Structures are given as C-alpha cells and as structure tokens.
Amino acid sequence: MKSCGHRLVPGSCCICKGSACGVCETTLQARCVFESPQRLCRECVTAVAFTQTFESEEEVVWGSLSPRGRRWLQSGQVSALQSSSSVSYTEYLNKQADPVDEEMIHKDVLCGRTDPSTLGIELREMLVWVGVERYRSTVAEVLRAYCVRNPQVGYCQGLNYITAWLLLFMDPASAFWSLCALIERILTPGFYIGGRTGNSLNGFYIEATAIAALLDYYFQPVREHDLPVTDFADCFSLPLLIQLFINSLDFPSTLFLWDLLFEEGSIALVRGVVCLTYLCEEAVRAGKHPSAIHRELAQRSVEKELRVKYPKLRTQITAVRVERLRRQARDYRAFQWRSSKAMILRRLEFASHFSKPELLQFQAEFNSILQAKRTAEDKDRSRQLTAGRRKTVNLPKALQDEVGSLEGNVDIGITKFEFLGLLGTLEGRLLDHSDRLFDLFDEDKSGYLDFRELIVCLSVLTKGPFEERLRLFFDIYDQDKSGCLRKADFQQLLYAVSLPYYEQLAQSFTRPTKSLMDSLYTCLNPLASSGLVTWPDFLKTVKSDEQVRHCFELHVEVKAAAQDYGRDERERTAATCVQCALM
Questions:
Q1: Per-residue pLDDT tens over the stretch 265-304
Q2: CA separation for the pair 258, 443 (Å, rounded)
Q3: Which of 15, 61, 284, 368 is found 20 to 30 A from 460 (Cα to Cα)?
Q4: pTM for the complete prediction?
Q5: Are 22 and 9 in contact (CB under 8 A)?
C-alpha cells in the first residue's frame, strides 16, 4: 500500500497501536470493538483485508462446518474415530466433567484468558463478530465434553486455542471429534497429559527431542548456537507445538501446516518446526534466543517460503526416521526416571504414595534387576539408543554421553511378561485384569513399563486410596476408552463384583449375603438403565450406600500374597512385604 504522504502518529493505529496516519481515516474499517473513526497502519489494513476476503471465499462462520472443515473432518483418523465411537457428542454434553477440569476451563475460557483480544490480529479479526459470551460458551462446551470422554488427559494448556481454531471451521460436534482424533490418534501418545502421574507433556518432549536430533544432524547453525541443541529445540518448539502453530504464525502459514497435519499425521509437526528453523537461519546464526526468534517470526509472512522448503524436507525427515527417533527419545526419558536426581524424586513422590526412602530403595532394586537382565539377554536382540549405525540420525551427542552404552528396552523397563510375573507377588481381584492393567499404565505405548509407570501402578494397587483403585476398576471395563460405560459393559462390571456372593449363595444360603446382593442391584441398576454410566455418577452411587461401598472395597483391595513356607505355622502366615514386589 502506498503512503498517503501525511505524518504518521505513533500509537494511533486502532488495532496494533503502531504508527498510523494522523489525518486520513482509512476506508477499510476494522470490525473490532474499536471506536470510529478507524485509523490503521498499513500492516493492519492488509491483515483486515485478508481476513474479510478469506471469510467470504472459505465460507467461514463461527460454529458452522465450512468446506475446509469438512475436508479435515473426512480425513481418515477423524472419520474412523467418530464412526467407531459408542457415545455421541450430545451424550457427553449431558454428563459432568471432573471438578478440577471444570475449574481450569472456567479460568482459561469463561474468565477471558482465551478471548479474541488475546489473539493475533488475523485470528482476532476472524472472531470479532462472534460475540464474547457465545465465543466463551461454545469453546467451554467442547472442552467439557472432551474432559468427560478423556479424564486422563482432562483440560491442558493450549487446548483452549485449538478448540477455538477448530470452531472457526466446524460446528461444535465436528470440532469435538476432530479434537478427539488429534489427541488420541494423530499426535504422539501423551502429547497432552496433565501432571497427575508426574509426566506432564511427555509427548511434547518426545517430539522436541526428535526435532533436536534432526537439527543437530542437518542444521549446522544450531550446533554453533550458544544454547545446547536440546535446549534450543525445547525453547523453539514449545510455543509452536503446544498450540499446534496457532497464534504463533501468520494465518496462511498456520492453515498450510494444519492441512498437512490432517493429511500426513503428527510427522507434519516435526517437519514444520524444522522447516521454520531453516527459515529463521539468519537469526539463529546471530545467536538470538528462541523467544526473540519467535517474536520476529510472528511478524513475518512465511507461507510461500514454507511451501517451497517443506517438500524438500520430506526426503530427510521420513516417517521411519522420525519414528526411530521417537522410540529413542522414549527410551531416553525412561532412562531418566531411573536416576536419583532431586527433581526426579520430587516428581515421583508427587505422582505416587511412596516416600523418598522407599523410592530410593525401589530405584536401587529396579536398576539391579535391569542390569542382571542386560547381562543375561542376547544383546543382538536389543535396539541401540546410542549411535550404532554410521551416517544416520541419532539423539544429540550430549544425550548419548549421558546414557553411555545403554542398549534398548531390555534394560530400561519391564515387558508385559515380566509385569505379569511381578503381579504374582500380590493378590486381589484387580489382578485378574493384568493385561489391561499393563496397557493402562503404559502411557507412552512403548511396549514396556519404565520406572515411573511401574511406580505409579504399584502405588495405586498397593497404597492408593479406595477411590483410586475404584477408578482403575472402572477404567478396566471402559474397553473403547470412551470415558463412559455402556449398559453391557456396566453389567459385566456388576457381575464381576457380585460373582463371589453368587458362589456363596450356591454353597449355603444366608440372609446377610442375599441382603447384600439385593443392595447391590437396587443401588446400581438405575445407573445401567440410563444407558451411559460416567465415572462421577458411578463414584457417587457407590459411596451413597455403606454396604455397596464395603463390597467394592473388598473387590478392589490388593495385598501381598501369603507365602507357604512348609509346616511352620508362624512362617506360613507371614506375608511378603509389598515393597518386595521389586526386590
């Protein structure tokens, strides 16, 4: 846009508060809550013109399905998840989320932290006609429904922006299923996960470590930066990945990368961050901090450069290579949990019911067991975490030096077979579902339980309060991971709890046992009649009747298995200490 020739007045632009003409009134009016007459700088005039044209051409209406939104919705992962779900979006809406998640949604969405005024100009201009109350309520509605479906993830920072972005192109139900597909199928496991198990944002760190390895191998300026390559990758990747590029890049660039995200999957995130690092080469060479590079990047329009550079990276950043780096990154994270560093121990204390001395003892025994495995196992069957092949991408040298000659998952965690053997030192009806227990606690889906995952599992089983073990029992029957139990699933759960009493009645009829059976069915059957049982409803019902609660307490109790030492009655009745499970 040509200059009008008049003097620019600092701070007079109604949108960015930058310099604008102090005489002219632009003919292109911004649609924000700004007062007329409007005076805009040239950059803001361009941005406003783009958004108005884009809304018209793309048929963008808040909370409605646009052509682009329909393409995203029809991608394989989203459509497959929606069609396979046994619970509808409407059913999720009618259930209550965890109070902790409700509180966070209230603070982040309903109290204004995610209002359009907090966003960049192009995204903000897209949203200004929505109306603040409708904007907040729709975003909160989708987030609440997701917290009901996946309470293990619940509400995490960044999901507010992603939900608002999806609602620009989709109706609430479509935005909900797209959010589900992103978290549960497209992104790496644990990408969004709270700190309840001491492993907050584990998936992000997996991706950032893979990005660090790729930059270290291909991009020399990063190796020459003042920050170590791993620190640079963490700082540079964090704002880009947590919000999936939203509000970090110009609008066309974000759209370009989101199209690729639904088309290629999570590898688009890795390629996108590496590509953006290449586009900031001058700033990287100048030694600028990643936060300063981000500020500069947000002011640039890089879509054309992305479209040129991104395809060239496909030959370097292949799916096989990225998956191998992710596997190595998971192994490295698992290795870290074995250390006795103060930070590690604090996080383990927070995530479990074990004390620091108990954790130190567990660590020593766990590491000795793994060392014995490493000596006994055939090393040829172990995958190598350190650089074993020439001319290939591996973790940065600093990480390789830290783990030394560590080799593969045989000496960083325990397999499912070994886990089943470990449970042999315990007894309880929950252990009848050992396969499902392994899958539930293998959060990163690595195929083994690292030290943190094992500690969390043993903590819940042996020291967890009644509600924790009851929740575990509920999740065992939630086979489709919908966050709810359908009538058939709930009836199986009820049958499992009542089976011991059926057996007692079959042997000898007693009125107390019959009374307990009647209480169970009288109390719990109304839940099944609703067709959909959520965790809050289940917990409230179980705790409402003392007999029913006692019945479930017995069912979810886990204790040390008694050992038979022979004829000595005193030794025969002695029980193995629960802590001996690792020893």
A1: 999 999 999 999 999 999 999 999 999 999 999 888 999 9
A2: 26
A3: 368
A4: 0.84
A5: yes
